[in-house]
Design a protein that fits this description.
- This protein is α+β, with helices and mostly antiparallel strands.
- It has one domain.
- It is 35% helix and 31% strand.
- It has 2 helices and 8 strands, in the order H-E-E-E-E-E-E-E-H-E.
- Strands 1-2-3-4-5 form a 5-stranded antiparallel β-sheet, with helices on one face.
- A hairpin with a 2-residue loop joins strand 3 and strand 4.
- The longest helix is centred in the first third of the chain and has 54 residues.
- The chain starts with 6 loop residues before the first helix and ends in a 7-residue tail after the last strand.
């Protein structure tokens, strides 16, 4: 008597193999999507953190005068009067402003675009010698991001970073 594989056994083996392959493929696609989402989120978070560090560093050299505060806030613009050589006199004025999705840093005539991903730049009220700053960045400003579902469906993470600008002395407005 010869042992052979019947058509039914062969069909069942192929079907089971298909289920296993689909499971592995599904796991692979899910892992890749999670990795891409994590990479995008990390990229946006790193960018926001670097910008906030730069703002905080500029604020540390702020110095006020009788007719000009060390840090002046107007809407979504921050003006920092700096004393870069520690002689007590303002020698550099740095302005951070949000225009559309661009967060800009202006020093004299030099305008530097820090990011094109900004969706929010909020400067809070002074608390002691600190001014809270909230920066919101999104991976792709062109994609819908009105809701958490929009951002998740489009793999378009949004990150919000808050920092306190520490100002030496008491000269804030």
């Amino acid at each position: 008597m010869k042992k052979a594989v019947t058509l039914m056994e062969l069909t069942m083996a192929i079907a089971l193999m298909g289920v296993v392959v689909l499971g592995v493929a599904s796991f692979d696609v899910g892992s890749r999507r999670f990795l891409q989402s994590s990479e995008r989120n990390t990229l946006v978070l790193n960018e926001a953190t670097l910008i906030m560090d730069r703002i905080s560093k500029d604020a540390l050299t702020a110095v006020g005068r009788v007719n000009a505060a060390a840090i002046a806030v107007a809407g979504n613009t921050v003006t920092i009067n700096q004393d870069t050589n520690n002689d007590g006199v303002v020698d550099t004025v740095v302005v951070y402003s949000l225009a559309g999705n661009q967060l800009r840093r202006t020093v004299g005539a030099n305008v530097e675009v820090l990011t094109n991903r900004a969706t929010g730049f909020v400067i809070g009220n002074q608390i002691g010698n600190t001014v809270p700053v909230i920066l919101t960045l999104v991976f792709d400003v062109a994609l819908p991001r009105n809701t958490v579902q929009d951002r998740a469906a489009n793999n378009n993470p949004q990150v919000q970073v808050q920092s306190n600008m520490e100002v030496p002395g008491w000269s804030l407005s």
